[in-house]
Amino acid sequence: xxxxxxxxxxxxxxxxxxxxxxxxxxxxxxxxxxxxxxxxxxxxxxxxxxxxxxxxxxxxxxxxxxxxxxxxxxxxxxxxxxxxxxxxxxxxxxxxxxxxxxxxxxxxxxxxxxxxxxxxxxxxxxxxxxxxxxxxxxxxxxxxxxxxxxxxxxxxxxxxxxxxxxxxxxxxxxxxxxxxxxxxxxxxxxxxxxxxxx
Length: 198
What we know:
alpha+beta
């Protein structure tokens, strides 16, 4: 399901997407489709597919603080002023975590070499795609983007990892669930120690 379009980047692996709404699509995404920790895929023309995770959100409201006269209620503007552009919207921060080489059928964790162009479509991953991205060649779970995610997701890093672990754990076997449980406990401990320093 298409959920957004890329509008800008903050760095090589930190992108901003604008969530599509009823003006862009007859079936806009629901709030659950672009929530915190949701994995996304961004298909490119060279057959590669970038994989990322939503780690931040912002509301866009240029009308805030505008105290000018309101000649018409918001619902009537589409009829009375069809050229009126609704600039309100939602922006999502997307952290790139890896890519899928469609031609070689390989999945890599790390920093993609390519740059994602403006107006590229962003899609929500399915549960199968989410699990496939984390499955290594030996069938064991892998999170090789761990350090990259913590370094670039600011204050949300441990919460984001915990969300990913919570989503991934029910899909895994017993051995991988134990490994994820250890990681989750470690994240909670790190947050506890971090709070004591302040």
